[in-house]
Amino acid sequence: QRRLDAEWRDVAPKTRDGRAIEIAANIGSPAELDKAIASGAMGVGLFRTEFLFMERRSLPTEDEQYAAYAKVAAAFGDRPVVIRTLDVGGDKPLPGIAAPHEENPFLGWRGIRMCLDLPAVFKPQLRALLRAAVHGNIQVMFPMIAVVEELREARAMMEACRVELEAEGVPCKMPAIGVMVETPAAAFTADLLAAEVDFFSIGTNDLTQYTMAADRMNPHPRLARLCRADNTAVLRAVKMIADAAHARGIWVGVCGEAAGDPALIPELVKAGVTELSMSPSRVARAKRIVSELDLSQA
Ligand code: PEP
Ligand code: MG
């Protein structure tokens, strides 16, 4: 693995027919930042911020979050660092927030739904992101978007935070804004969403579970066949989302498990995806696979 990493570390891969593909890393803890850098990742395609909120008694402060986001942004310089806002739900309670009992937490109060309802949780994160954006190429994405109004509301909250920070004389910058496309509703309205964002990142883990109506947490082999991103329905959704992105001239990536899957990388690139974000251990292999692809032969 180390040798493979070293061999590909500085390569910005292109397919044989000349399409440049960004290979980025997913990170979900401070330790993974070092792994991402060592892997030769060309940026961070998904920074899961949940670790800052879990396994503690109180919510992280704005300053704590600012320090964590600024550190990752600075480590990648002008390379993109895509930070996802808090994505917890009924199954993962937040300290100090009474989680309602839900029969189906994955269809419940989670992700952006919860954040929009809890400004006391969401606003410190948005302020921290606006402040950290000064230190690098931060791009912010909202998870679990199902209707365009959620995006508008989140953006308005972010804009209000920016005005606040400026009034306080705190250095800040509005980052690029994107959405995770991981609900069938977002896939079906990708044209409407694309008109209002700077990028899409397709969350194939949830998009697969919701498209196939097959629980991603259910380990039974009876379901495993359905809960796979290589099902035609999921690949068609990816194509539809990529087409909608291209029609508006915005970039589209994949940050679910499929992005690092050797069998799926060719399919995703063929569909028009130009960024793949994965666990650091898969970065070098993905670069090699992309370099061997020839779409003119496909
Ligand atoms: C996804 O849903 O594909 C994704 C990347 O997010 P998570 O696995 O954190 O839900
Ligand atoms: Mg998800």
From TrEMBL:
A molecular function (GO) term: metal ion binding
The keyword Membrane belongs to this UniProt entry's keyword annotation: no
Q: Which GO terms describe its cellular component?
A: cytoplasm
Q: Where does phosphoenolpyruvate bind?
A: R48, R84, N205, D206, R216
The UniProt record lists the keyword S-adenosyl-L-methionine: no
Query: Which Gene Ontology BP terms does the record give?
Result: phosphoenolpyruvate-dependent sugar phosphotransferase system
Q: Where does Mg(2+) bind?
A: E182, D206
What are the protein's UniProt keywords?
Cytoplasm, Kinase, Magnesium, Metal-binding, Phosphotransferase system, Sugar transport, Transferase, Transport
Q: Where does the record say this protein resides?
A: Cytoplasm
Positions annotated as active site in the UniProt record: C255
Q: Which family does it belong to?
A: Belongs to the PEP-utilizing enzyme family.
- Function comment: General (non sugar-specific) component of the phosphoenolpyruvate-dependent sugar phosphotransferase system (sugar PTS). This major carbohydrate active-transport system catalyzes the phosphorylation of incoming sugar substrates concomitantly with their translocation across the cell membrane. Enzyme I transfers the phosphoryl group from phosphoenolpyruvate (PEP) to the phosphoryl carrier protein (HPr).
Q: Please state what the protein is called.
A: Phosphoenolpyruvate-protein phosphotransferase
Q: From what organism does this protein derive? A: Methyloraptor flagellatus
Of the parent protein, the shown chain spans 363 to 660 of 660
